[in-house]
Structures are given as C-alpha cells and as structure tokens.
C-alpha cells in the first residue's frame, strides 16, 4: 500500500543520512591520521604513493564502520560504489600535503551521490503510489446507489452556463474554506460548525439532513415545524425520499402520515410476509389467533361470537345466519354485508370477534405476541377488493393503538404506510377509520384518545389552525356514524347527463361541507349498536345493554377520553340520538368530573327527536321487526314515564346553562316495512318546548340528509352552529 512504501522510503533516507554522517566523521579522523603520517614520513623521508592511494584506506574505514553497524550495511554498500585502486607507482621524493579543500571535494561527491539517490527513490515511490491508488469514493458511491440512489439530475438553477460556472466556483471556494476550518478545528481542538462543514453541498441535500435532524429535536415545536417543512417541500429527488424513509424515526413517520396529501415515498413499504407453514389458510390463521386469546375480561357477547367462529365451518356458517345482525351499529342484512365467497364470510366473522377482543387492554399484547399484526397485514393485502374487511382490520389497528406499548410493533409491521395511503382515500368511511388509528398513534401532537366508535371527521390530519370548538353528531335507531349523515340520495337524470351536469355526491356532509365552512371546528361522529327488534340481535346477552342508561355511561367515558368538554360543544342528533344526548347531559350534571361538559355545551340541534315518545312502538302486529320490540323501541313509547322524567331534567339544565336549541320536525310519512307508512315523530313530540321548531317536507330518514349544500336544511344548520358558537371565530 502507499503507506508501506512511504515507510520504506523514510527508513532508507534515514539510513543514508546516518551513513553520510559516518563518512564525514571517518574522513575527518583519517585526515588527522594522514597529517601525523605525513610528519613521520618527512622525518623518515619515505615516499608516499599516488594521491588516490588514500581512497582505499578511506573505503576500508567505511567498510569497517558498516561492519560494526550491520543494519545499514546493505543500503550503504548499494549507494557507494567501491572499486579496487592500485597503490603501485613510482616513488616520489616529495610528499604532497593533503589540503582541506580536497577532503571537501570528496564530501561533495559523496553528498551528490546520496542526494541523487534520494531523489531517485522519491520519484519511484511517488510513481508507484499513483499507479496503485484506488478511488475509494467511487466504490462508496456505487455502494450507496444500491439503496438510496445517489445519482440525481441537476437542479434547474444549474442548467445555464453562467449559473453553472458561478455555482462551480462557489463550491470550490467553499471546499477550500471548509478544509481551512477543518485544519483550524484540529489545531485548536474545537468542534467544526455543522453548517459551515456542508457549505459546498447541494442546498436541497443539506436542507434534507438539517430537517431530519430537527425532526428528532427535544423541542416539540421544532419537531413539528421540521415535519411540516419536510412534507411541504416538493423539490426532493426520488433518492432523497428513499433516504428519508430509511432515516426517519417512528415518531416522525407517524407525523408525516398525518400531513395532508403527503408523498407516499416518505414511507417504507410493508416488510415481506413470511411463508405460512403447511399452506395454512387465512381463515385457519384467524381461528388459531382467536383460540390463543384468553376468554377472560370479555363480556358474554364476545365469548359467544368467538366460540361461534371457532366452531362453525365456512359452509355451515354461510347458510346458518340469516336476517339482520349488527356488531358495529350498521344494522345491515347479514347476506348483504358480506361477500359471496364463504371463506370471506368466516374471515369477517372472525374479524368482528377480534374487534371486541382488541377493546380489552390485556388482550392487545396477546394479539401482537401471537403474530396478529402480520396476519392482519396478510388479510389486508389479499382482500383489497373488500372495503368492509379492510375497515374491520383498520378498526382493530385503531383499538390496538390505544396502548402505547404496542406502537413500536405496529410501526415495524408496516402499518404506517398502509394508514398513510388509506387516509387519502376518496371514500370518507375508509379515510376516517385510518385517521382514528393514526391519531391514536400520534402521541406527539394528539393528547386525546379515540375509543372504538368515536370517529374524527375533521381535522383528520395535522393542522396549524387552532381548534375553537367541537361539534358532535349522534345517530338514531339503525343508524351509523357515517351513513346517517350522508347527502340525500338522488339519481342524475338522462337530461342532466346530456347537459353535462356533474353529480357531486358526498358520503358525509359534516365532513365535506361543514368542515369547509368552519375549518376551526373539530367534528366528531359517534356510533353505537341499536336494533328495532330482538330478532336482529344474535347475542343472547345483548338485550341487557341496550338501554339509554347503559349507552349514556359508555359514551360519556369515550367522549371524556377524546377531550370532549374541554372546549365549547354543539350537539347534533337524529331520532333516538337526541334522547341519548339528553341522557348524557343529565348524567354529566351529576358527575363532578364531567361538569365542564355541561358548562361548555352551547347548543343542541335535534332532527325529529321523539321527546314525548312515538306511535311507532305501538305497532307490533303488521310490522315484522316489531313482533319482539327491543328495549330501545319500548323506551320510545308515547308518554313513557322515563321520557317524561328525562325531559324535565334536561329542560332544567338547558335553561340554567342558557343552551340554544333548534328542532326540525318531519311532515312526510315514512315507510316502515312494505305495508306500513306512518309519521314516525309527529311535530307535537318533536317540539321540546324551548328553542325554535321548524317543520320541513321530509320523512324521518331524510330529515338529517340535506339534498345539496345550498338547500335550506343545511343553510339553517350552519347558521345555528355559527350562532351557538358566536365569538369563537370558527369561520
């Protein structure tokens, strides 16, 4: 190597210098000896030989010195050419005197030989060093290209000739300045300033690493600002996105996933899934996972559905269950809610049981330890055509994310990239499930936790706008967190299509319309199970937990975890959801820890809420669903004592707190089954006694579904929300 050759050169040079010094020393000694000999010869009149007879003696002295110093003998003998000189010659009578200048000539000749040899050796070493030098930087670049694509195109500012020369000159000056600073820092033993050490780098390259370092700062504001700049800078090259994806930590990756319209190249794809042993199907994997979970700390319904999923085969399960069933509050027919493939029906059934297990904190660790995250990832990738299966899977991930102990496992199993892609889905339901899971993962920016059944409609991503108030939407019987609040269904006619009328339909108008008109609001939608008949509930123990009192306590606990009550609140409820809102406020008034919810409630909007009951509960002969009415329906009976007490207690709270109230009443009958058409909530029952009452020409199902954004129903709703929160600057 070059270092070894330089070491050899230094060794030879030292030997030559030592040899040269020895020659001078021995020459001086010989000179003194010759002077003594001259004196003796003069006295004895002896003749001396020719002048060159002195050289053999000198050489003998040198050889004797080298013999005494063997380490340098080889190099010295190679440098000094010794030849045999004759000492014979005619006798000279007159003995010449050896002057000092002659000895100096000998020294010059010897020095010239030594110096020339040194120059020759130096030249050979330098030439050899250049011949065998390897450009290690090129090898390093090739190595880096294999995973971060170091080669990238030039920036637009470097395309012109003049700008290119200017940039090149600036880089060379920066390189020289950096070398000077590096030498200075070594001499003074001080650290080199990081900014100055990268002055010659590409501005975008330097900015990337500065932002990546800031994203790990101990200052929360610095971290969040760095994430915003990372996501909003669209000048990154592809290799820089790949670099960031490998460098960012868990906290930064989650934060980037919650930035609106973030580039998906910031996230590494999910890791390859291991091959299953013995060709185990997904259905069998889900059953094995369910079998490994403890059956303790879960209610009777979870045990019932878990045992059912473990016991039934896909063929019998596909043909057994009929009618309506509901595990998540949608109330959809079983045959319509699942796909046509029998195995997918069993998978969905198992996933519904896993949803309930994931609500138990101790079971979350078991799901992760038994490979549940990888199994769910496999199901998600194989069932991309089934939105229902994907929603159930992300719902499980959102429940698991409530426990910070499993956050690392969720990130390592590749779920951040999946959620980052899903939150940008045009389907509001899919995006809302992903938004809930990411919010539960983002502990750096979100202090609240969103339990199962509480969904964020706005803001679903990180935002710089401060949240001034909360608006909560609560559905009614057979409703859901999203489908209840969709736009009114309508078909585009052929004439409209011919005229080029574009259908702008929204699956959830609070998310699409209200969030755009009031960006400083946090809009939440809650979901709970509800049934018209006990026929619909397949769990035997489900009837015991469907009362208003049970649901009120359950939702109050979830809303408290979500931070509801810490800022002004406006409630929007439909049908039985209005009764549930009143029950929650009455219960909160009795709990000292929830008094802030009463204090911050500014307004309540009721869509066809049966404050005094409904006639629908009395029809139980001609309606198939009401042959065995559920607890919810029984509580809606007209002039029910429970409703009367609830109404009186709520009116006292609303009057004391000066809560603004607006009620909408239906005037169009609603079809209940194929044979019955009734006015579900008459205007008399929808009139609370305080606030305004507005009757609209809509039935019970469509009274909470505006036909379009400029319709009276939506405009009046928006006006009420803004008036209830006047002074909060929510626009």
Question: Brief overview, please?
Answer:
The protein is of the alpha/beta class and about 725 residues long. The chain has 30 helices and nine strands. Among the domains are: about 60 residues, no CATH class; about 110 residues, no CATH class; about 260 residues, Rossmann fold, CATH 3.40.50.
Could you give the topology of this structure?
Elements: H1 2-44, H2 54-68, H3 73-79, H4 100-132, H5 136-148, H6 161-188, H7 203-214, H8 220-232, H9 238-247, H10 250-257, H11 282-292, H12 300-311, H13 314-320, H14 334-337, H15 342-357, H16 361-369, H17 372-382, H18 387-400, H19 407-412, H20 415-422, H21 428-441, E1 454-458, E2 469-474, H22 494-498, H23 509-517, E3 521-526, H24 548-561, E4 569-574, H25 576-589, H26 595-600, E5 601-607, H27 631-635, H28 641-656, E6 660-666, E7 670-672, E8 676-678, H29 683-686, E9 692-696, H30 712-724
Parallel strand pairs: 2-3, 2-4, 4-5, 5-6, 6-9
Antiparallel strand pairs: 1-3, 7-8
């Amino acid at each position: 190597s070059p270092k070894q050759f330089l070491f050899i050169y230094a060794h030879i040079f030292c030997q030559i210098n030592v040899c040269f010094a020895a020659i001078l020393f021995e020459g001086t000694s010989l000179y003194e000896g010759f002077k003594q000999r001259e004196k003796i010869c003069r006295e004895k009149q002896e003749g001396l030989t020719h002048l060159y007879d002195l050289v053999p003696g000198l050489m003998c002295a040198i050889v004797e010195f080298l013999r005494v110093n063997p380490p340098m003998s080889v190099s010295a003998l190679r440098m000094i050419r010794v030849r045999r000189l004759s000492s014979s010659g005619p006798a000279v009578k007159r003995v010449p005197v050896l002057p000092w200048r002659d000895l100096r000539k000998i020294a010059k000749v010897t020095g010239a030989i030594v110096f020339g040899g040194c120059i020759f050796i130096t030249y050979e070493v330098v030439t050899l060093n250049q011949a065998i030098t390897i450009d290690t930087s090129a090898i390093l670049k090739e190595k880096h290209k294999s995973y971060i694509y170091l080669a990238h195109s030039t920036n637009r500012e470097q395309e012109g000739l003049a700008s290119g020369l200017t940039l090149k000159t600036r880089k060379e000056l920066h390189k020289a300045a950096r070398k000077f600073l590096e030498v200075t820092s070594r001499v003074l033993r001080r650290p080199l300033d990081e900014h100055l050490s990268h002055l010659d780098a590409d501005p975008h390259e330097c900015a990337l690493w500065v932002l990546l370092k800031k994203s790990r700062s101990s200052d929360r504001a610095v971290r969040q600002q760095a994430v915003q700049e990372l996501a909003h800078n669209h000048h990154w090259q592809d290799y820089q996105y790949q670099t960031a994806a490998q460098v960012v930590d868990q906290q930064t990756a989650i934060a980037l996933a919650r930035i609106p319209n973030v580039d998906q190249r910031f996230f590494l794809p999910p890791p390859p899934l291991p091959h299953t042993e013995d060709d185990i199907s997904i259905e069998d994997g889900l059953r094995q996972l369910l079998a490994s979970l403890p059956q303790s700390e879960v209610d009777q319904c979870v045990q019932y559905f878990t045992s059912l999923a473990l016991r039934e085969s896909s063929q019998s399960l596909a043909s057994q269950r009929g009618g309506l069933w509901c595990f998540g509050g949608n109330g959809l027919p079983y045959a319509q809610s699942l796909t046509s493939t029998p195995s997918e029906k069993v998978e969905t059934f198992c996933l519904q049981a896993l949803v309930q297990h994931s609500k138990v904190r101790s079971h979350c660790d078991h799901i992760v330890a038994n490979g549940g995250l990888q199994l769910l990832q496999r199901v998600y990738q194989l069932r991309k055509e089934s939105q229902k299966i994907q929603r159930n899977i992300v719902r499980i991930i959102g429940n698991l994310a409530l426990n910070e102990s499993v956050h690392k496992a969720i990130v390592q199993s590749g779920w951040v990239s999946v959620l980052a892609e899903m939150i940008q889905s045009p389907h509001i339901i899919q995006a809302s499930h992903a938004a809930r899971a990411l919010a539960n993962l983002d502990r750096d920016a979100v202090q609240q936790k969103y339990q199962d059944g509480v969904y964020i409609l706005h803001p679903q991503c990180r935002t710089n706008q401060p949240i001034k108030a909360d608006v909560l939407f609560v559905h009614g019987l057979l409703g859901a967190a999203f489908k209840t609040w969709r736009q009114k269904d309508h078909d585009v006619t052929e004439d409209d299509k011919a005229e080029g009328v574009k259908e702008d339909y929204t699956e959830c108008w609070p998310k699409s319309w209200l969030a755009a008109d009031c960006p400083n609001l946090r809009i939440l939608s809650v979901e709970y199970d509800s049934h018209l008949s006990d026929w619909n509930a397949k769990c035997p123990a489900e009837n015991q937990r469907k009362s208003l009192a049970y649901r009120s306590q359950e939702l109050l606990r979830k809303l408290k975890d979500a931070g509801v009550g810490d800022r002004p609140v406006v409630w929007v409820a439909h049908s039985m959801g209005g009764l549930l809102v009143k029950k929650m406020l009455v219960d909160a008034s009795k709990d000292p820890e929830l008094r802030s919810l009463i204090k911050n409630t500014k307004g309540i909007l009721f869509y066809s809420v049966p404050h005094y009951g409904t006639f629908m509960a009395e029809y139980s002969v001609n309606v198939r669903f009401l042959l065995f009415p559920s607890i919810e329906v029984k509580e809606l009976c007209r002039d029910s004592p429970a409703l009367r007490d609830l109404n009186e207690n709520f009116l006292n709270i609303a009057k004391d707190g000066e809560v603004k109230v607006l009620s909408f009443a239906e005037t169009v009958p609603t079809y209940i089954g194929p044979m019955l058409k009734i006015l579900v909530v008459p205007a008399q029952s929808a009139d609370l006694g305080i606030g305004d009452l507005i009757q609209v020409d809509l039935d019970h199902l469509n009274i909470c579904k505006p036909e379009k954004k400029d319709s009276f129903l939506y405009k009046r709703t928006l006006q009420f929300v803004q008036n209830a929160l006047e002074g909060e600057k929510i626009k």
